[in-house]
Amino acid sequence: MNKEVPNNKLWEAVLENRLNRENDHKLVRQYEILNFAVATHTPLHRLAMFEEKALSFQPDVLFYIGHPSDRLRASYRLAELVMSGTTIPYDYLREIVEKAGLRADMPIRELRARLHSHSNEILAGTYRRIVEICRERNIPPVFIYLPNLRALGEEETPDHLRLAAEAGFNVLNMSGVFDGVDEQTLHRNEWDFHPNAKGHRIIADRLYEMLRKNPALLQKNQPSQR
């Protein structure tokens, strides 16, 4: 996915460099952004990645990147887990599987169809679990909603923002980040509509401005005094 954009041109690298370049070092000595994203991962993958790998790096802040297609992809992933007979690792997912009456011997199309009405529950439960983990460790959970180029999936935006906020995320809505820019100049090529280096720079610049307006989102929460 990123073969046409060098790692140092990806938005997280550009953002990290700017944060450090313009850092006054009064509160934070140095910023480091670790990217655990995988192109094919769904919200269920991201939850597992956060628990099983990212937490071992003792993060001060979590940036969770949400995309318009996440709701559909999460329900498809749960259908795949059921069909393969994989043990479902979370109570909220097991409850949804039971309510939907899913069985491993069902065709994948039926599994997906039965989960359609539960797609918000899947996403909401995933968000709540991530926020719960963060609160246990005094990690600020920041939900960054990043839209697609070509306005793909725009109708999904309100539900994503609502579910993330209800779960307890600090929400940064990046909708409109590419407004006013000729999108043809942001595509990687004529068939790949992921952002090119210019697009990643636009994302980093907008996110930098949003974070500077919310500096608490760049620092680890202090343990509550009892």
Query: Averaging pLDDT over every residue, what do you get?
Result: 91
Low-confidence parts, pLDDT < 50 over ≥5 residues?
none
Which of globular, elongated, flat, extended, rod-shaped describes the shape? globular
The helix/strand order is HHEHHHHEHEH
Report the structural category.
mainly alpha
In the CATH hierarchy, the third-tier topology is known as Rossmann fold
- β-strand number: 3
Total helices: the number is 8
Cα(first) to Cα(last) distance is 47 Å
Write a compact overview of the structure shown.
With 226 residues, the protein is mainly alpha-helical. The chain is built from eight helices and three strands. A three-stranded parallel sheet has the order 1-2-3.
Task: Characterise this structure.
The chain is built from 8 helices and 3 strands, in the order H-H-E-H-H-H-H-E-H-E-H. It has 226 residues and is mainly alpha-helical. It has a single domain, classed as 3-Layer(aba) Sandwich (Rossmann fold), CATH 3.40.50.1110. It is globular and about 55 Å long.
Give structural attributes.
3-stranded parallel sheet, 8 helices, Rossmann fold, 3 strands, about 230 residues, about 5% strand
Question: Topology, pairings included?
Answer:
Elements: H1 11-21, H2 43-52, E1 62-66, H3 70-84, H4 91-100, H5 108-115, H6 119-136, E2 141-145, H7 157-167, E3 170-173, H8 197-213
Parallel strand pairs: 1-2, 2-3
